[in-house]
Amino acid sequence: MKSVLKTLLGRGGTLAVLCVSALLAVGNAHAVGTLAGTTIGNKATLSYSVGAVVQTPIASAPTGSTNGTGATTTFVVDNKVNLTVTASDASPVNGVAGQSLVTATFVVSNTGNNTQDFALTTANLASGAGVTLGVTPYTDNFDMTGCTISVAGVTQTYISSLAPDGSQTVKVVCAIPLSQPNGDISGVSLVATARAAGTNGVTVLVQSPTNDPNVVDIVFADGAGTDDIAFAANHSSRSAYRVATAALTVTKTFTSVCDPFNGGTNPKNIPGSYVQYSLSITNNGGASATLTQITDVLNGSLTFDPDLISGAGVAANCAAGIAPLGGAGKGFRVTYAGRPAASYPKYLTSSSGDSDGGSFAAGTITIDFSTALPAEATFGQGELKVGDTVQVVFQVKIN
Fold first, then answer.
1. pLDDT, tens digit (0-9, with 9 covering 90-100), for 281-320
2. What's the pLDDT score for residue 316?
3. What is the distance in angstroms between the CA of the first residue and the CA of the last residue of the chain?
4. What is the rounded CA–CA span in Å between residue 126 and residue 261?
5. Which residues pair with 168 in a beta bridge?
6. How many H-runs (helices) and E-runs (strands) does the chain carry?
7. Equal CATH topology for 80-243 and 248-398
8. Contact assessment for residue 277 and residue 330, using Cβ atoms and an 8 Å cutoff
9. Where are the alpha helices (DSSP H) in the chain?
């Protein structure tokens, strides 16, 4: 290293050495500025002559100096209190009515030059208040309940000793009322307020009324957020929750299959006729539903058709022996557009002793969707996704 310096100096290297020193100094600089409490000091040196005779240089001092030693003039860098709170959610956080742990996420950043605690508070917005996430505006129309604040997985209302340039994720966890309609919006604010470091967010900071060069004075430099004013050592942002639950519609329709006189041509609903029922379940909501089972108690004037006859090319008397749609003994057809095409439609037996999800016993039809709609591809067990429809078809004979 010494030989390198000698080479630099021998070739006008003073400037090069100064540049290296400057780069090292920049590497130690903080992105938000010089840290509070840093002592900055220097002194000036005066060269002069009297009667063409060069005199001993005089170094400066805070109280004045007449010699070459002098004294360093110093001051300490003050505490610039600044922070930002930013909502991380690009759109309202979806939750089901009655759900207790719905989480909005924020980031609190220390953009000041001193380590600080930050006290945290959250509040529901007033009805009709606006929230903009991304570029989309939303309007609050209900309040969440039981809201808590979580920092690093711990329920607490402060951030401890956050260093300059540091950031901390904060979560606001709330519950949606059970009866809240689908699509409703609830806005929430998070306010962070700078506090003295190491006090669990308790000790309030007070701006310094005067400037003492030997003391770390406090200056509030924060801007205004969504729910606070500027220069008050705080900042805020808004996020929102949205009720996104399943909204199911169950439809039952029927189609005449055949009758004993007309067969499958323009059949009528007379004794001996076969009628096909279709049960359709559609999810028009904002979240998937997990279907469990559907039951249908047959009228006493009906007899269940265990073979799901096709009704195509039937004899004029609509008698037994007509080809079944899914094979003998398979009385249910399940269709679900969107699930793997190779698996649907599927045909289920009416036996209550097997495990395909379909059964008929004691005059009651039962479809167990946890079995009939297994977990597959991107679908969970029994899942009916938003906008989708599952259909169950079975047939009966009129007594």
1. 999 988 899 999 999 999 999 999 998 887 766 666 676 5
2. 60
3. 106
4. 69
5. 108
6. 3, 31
7. yes
8. no
9. 2-10, 14-27, 369-372
What pLDDT was estimated at residue 2?
Answer: 39
Q: What would the two tokens of residue 396 be?
A: 């009966």
Q: Are 84 and 136 in contact (CB under 8 A)?
A: no
Instruction: Count the neighbouring beta carbons within 10 Å of the beta carbon of residue 278.
Output: 15
Q: What pLDDT was estimated at residue 312?
A: 65
pLDDT for position 166: 97
Residue 353 burial by CB count (10 A; 0-12/13-18/19+): exposed, middle or buried? Answer: exposed
- Count of Cβ atoms closer than 10 Å to residue 37 Cβ: 14
What is the reported pLDDT for 173? 98
In CATH terms, 80-243 corresponds, of 3.30.1380.10, 1.10.1740.10, 3.40.50.920, 2.60.40.10, to: 2.60.40.10
Segments making up each domain of the chain, as ranges: 80-243, 248-398
Q: What's the pLDDT at 26?
A: 36
Q: What is the pLDDT of residue 310?
A: 79
Burial class (CB in 10 A: 0-12, 13-18, 19+), 65: middle
What CATH number does the domain located at 248-398 have?
A: 2.60.40
Q: Per-residue DSSP letters for 245-288?
A: ---EEEEEEEEEEEBTTTBTSS----TT-EEEEEEEEEE-SSS-
Parts of the chain with a pLDDT under 50? 1-28
> What confidence tens digit (pLDDT) does each residue in 139-182 have?
999 999 999 999 999 999 999 999 999 999 999 999 999 989 99
One-letter amino acid identity for 380? G
Q: What is the pLDDT of residue 262?
A: 83
Task: Give pTM, 2 decimals.
Answer: 0.73
Q: Distance from CA of residue 139 to its chain's centroid?
A: 18
DSSP letter assigned to residue 102? E
Tokens of 172: 């606001």
At 378, list the tokens.
Answer: 């991107």
Instruction: Count other C-beta atoms under 10 Å from residue 374's C-beta.
Output: 15
For residue 142, CA distances in Å to 90, 184, 190, 240, 270 come to 20, 7, 17, 11, 54
With tokens 């039809």, the residue in question is 365
